[in-house]
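FAQ: What does the model actually see?

It sees only this:
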Amino acid sequence: MIPDPCDSIPRLSPLFVKGFAFIHVRCALFALLWARRDQVCSKDEIAAAVWPEYQEEIYDYQIESLVKRLRAKLEPNPAEPALLLSAAGRGYRLAGGR
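And it is asked to produce this:
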């Protein structure tokens, strides 16, 4: 598992990126996707990185909702994502060459 760079951020303190506040779960998702940009992260990998304390209790709708909230912060048009992309049946990836 990739170490969570958000561990050093107090849980209630937001991280600011481009003027937008990221709470811990969005920060953890963004950190995972950034570390593995252009690679698909499965929903299981996302759940482990974002909610390690709730491994057996994370449902797809929770991950989908988190992705939707992150897209709202990152994408110019969240309805037509260009950065945070779905990989049908596999997970999500952050577009952006290294």
